Input
Amino acid sequence: MTSKELLYVKTVADEKSISQAAKKLFIAQPSLSQSLQRIEETLGTQLFNRTSSGLALTFAGERYYHMASQILKMYEDFEIEISDINNLKTGRIHLGITNHLGTLTLSKVLPRFRDICSHVELLISEENSATLEQLLLSGELDFSIMHAPKVNNQPLIHYDNMKKDPFVIAISPNHPLVKKAKKEPDYPYPVLDIKLLKNETFLMLHKQQRIRQVTDSVLAKAGITQPKIGLTLRNYETAQLLAAQGLGVTLVPLQYSQIAPNEYLPTILSIDKKYDASWDMCIATLKNSFLSKADQLFIRMVKEAFDCGSSD
Output
């Protein structure tokens, strides 16, 4: 039972004539007659009776007509809805974003997006990067704004890197190591060799958090494979605040270090580029997944907000 068959029966019933229906459908009368015969044979019942006033529906025909009318109306409504979605008049975006990227990103993008797509529903899940990856894999998210892993252990996810952000050291202004940092060109702050932190106490985030994963990678490259961990926290702001007060040292992204509270400010030191102390802000999607026009527009606006342009 196809939409074409539904339309054939409905049109014949409306016109009460195969010849008139054939003209309206722009098909040959014999072809329409044969189609009706096949439909009745498939159903095992007659849909029309011939009367003096033309073709009339049987009881089975009336039920078929009612069903066909409903389905064809639903199909027509669906086509209109798809057209609206394609023209950004309606739709839904379910995006994921990390908490702090939400702070940095959404205020730049949402007002502009709302001006263009006021009727597109936005569902936003704020989670850490590892959780966002799982939500992507389960099909719950269209895309995610997050930080790419150093090593891609998720072959089904595509990471479209947008902006690299270096990590820096947050340390107490009174710490003796501050004086050992040296000013070097192309670094925003004096550079301290990570190896000098070997005997220091670290304020770490949890292992499933991307900041911790980058920190572990950087320390390992400096030969610090078993760092002394004073506290394990979930919030980088707390770690930075405690570092400012001398409770340990912590590694944080440069972008995040700039939104620290003014009450307790740590000294910020740069890390030598040879340690690859950085992460990449990215748009994560399932490989070969479908992105609606609304999805694509939102992603383009995010890239423009961070001067990333568009990638192929």
Notes: The radius of gyration is 32 Å. DSSP finds ten helices and eleven strands in the chain.
